[in-house]
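Researcher: Please translate sequence to structure tokens.
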Amino acid sequence: MITLRLKALFFSALIVITGSAAFAKQDDNPALAASAIPAALKTNAHAVIRYANTEVSVESLNRVKYKRSYAVTILDEQGKAAANLMEQYSQMIRIQNIEGALYDASGKMLRSLKEKDIFDRSTYQMSGAFHSDERIKAYSFNHTVYPYTVYFEIDETLSTTFFMPRWSPQPGNDYAVEQAQFSLSYAPEFKVRYKELLLPPGARKDGKDAQGRPLVSWQVRNIAAYKTQPLSSSDNYDRPTVLLAPGDFQLMDYKGNMNSWNSLGLFSYQLNDGRSQLPEDKKALVQSIIGTEKDTYKKVQLLYAYMQQNTRYVLNAYGISGWQTFDAAHVAHNGYGDCKGLTNYLKALLAEAGIKSYAALVSAGDDYYRLDEQFPANNFNHVILCVPQAKDSIWVECTSQELPAGYLGSFTQNRKVLLATETGGYLCNTPFYGKDKNYLVRKISVRIDPASEQQQVTMQHTYSGLLGDDIASIVKNKPKDQVREWQNTRFSFPSYGINDYSYVFTGNNGIPALEENVTATVSGVITSTQKRTFLNIGWLQNPLTEVLQNEPRTLPLVLRKSFRITDSLLVTLPEGSQIESLPEGKSIDYPFASYRLRFEKRAGEVIAIRNYEQSAGVYKPEVFADYQNLYQELNRQKEDMNIVLLNKTP
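Model: Translation complete:
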């Protein structure tokens, strides 16, 4: 699945744009003087869009004119990235013209962009694509005297309507916008749909262009920069945006319709239909692999494991291949494929085993696009496989050589996807992994030796579900010396060295787990006097993520992951010692989490049990203060986490 081509259009449209006479390119332009920027627009800003205009004109299903011009004033070094030009192009995106100029703080032009200075190269080794037709044109004036202004004009033609630009006049929270406008025109027979997000009242105007075609335009002014609020993203956009999507569209030689999710899914299915024929030797191999196995999940796991061991992921983004898979025979012969190719290959293997499955289009990653049921659009960057079942469907991440069948990980879990079937597309949800799947259980043992500064600590950890993904990736994929280095920095003891480390992969019901055993020599956790020994257990890690916000909270608290962490610490006391005091137990409840800490005394032992449970959700803004307070409370608690013993008297 192509991601770069989408990103190219999206990045280009972030600073989108056409022109006004006051800001047209000229030798000297007092209107661009930094002193003319209103003071309110400089607050929290590192760059200011002085004006930004864009024109999108849909001429036909395979011809879209896309013109932009913009001027942006760079206030300081932190805003210098806004001065760089980078445009991606390919078979379906042609750049007709690029112009640019650099102005000083007063609006005096220092130099203009020359075509020979534009950097032009393939995206090979930049994009991760093995085979791609995508290239980039890039340029930077490399100016360092602030403030200064850059001006660019870009004229492009798109030979497809399958993906279209979006308009986001404020590229980031640290940009302010003086004025920006956007216009969309199209032939009536090629109607374009749009959706407005977070625009001020009256921003849109409807009319006709010079040819009498529908013309829709938007304009915004004086948008201030702002400070971000951590753990607050609950939607796709937090700034003014206009989304575009076609009705009928064309992708190279293929035509389709995007007015509904059903029609878009049907197009994807038909685009890839007939490409799942296996070679005869692979058909025979399938039967030998599954043997007499009757259970559907076990057959999926067997064939998935075979594919994992005999193929690898290679991204192919050349022309139509960004959306149309290589056929199964090609993957079988060459041993590689991208997400579409590997998904199609496993689909073919399963079909030979009598198991029906479908490709599912998905927006993958942590910063993924949440599908809008009311606005069908092409916002996908990945493909996974779904094996429908009467109760719970089996989902497979075909690009992984590590995950078990039925487990997706954080890359694609808990989101809407578009299932592409012979009867059209259907929205459905990938699995959500809750606290019963995502957990960490840590069992720690310490035998106190008051005569030594070093203590021997034994740890047994069980990571399950999403909480084990990162650990599993490290121990599987990193070189041994890097794993050793990581082991010697991952724990929160004052000082320690790892004596022994081992792990084993376990898990059940398609949820992976990792169990590890660690022994370490630890220093700095006990202090002894003639009468007493103090064991500090404040090195137990804070289960919350540190987030800071001093300004008033106005956005919801958004927690994406449900999980639980249980710690049990067994302390074996020196012979003859007595417990003088233990830390105070805790019981804290908030809407988003609960925390429990308790201590048990046994003969010659102390057991500390700590449990933290967090629930994913969108919570009211005022709950953010509770989250911060709980984090700070658990940090303060570390200072009082001392087990105090009375030493054995001679």
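Researcher: Any highlights?
Model: The longest strand covers residues 47-60.
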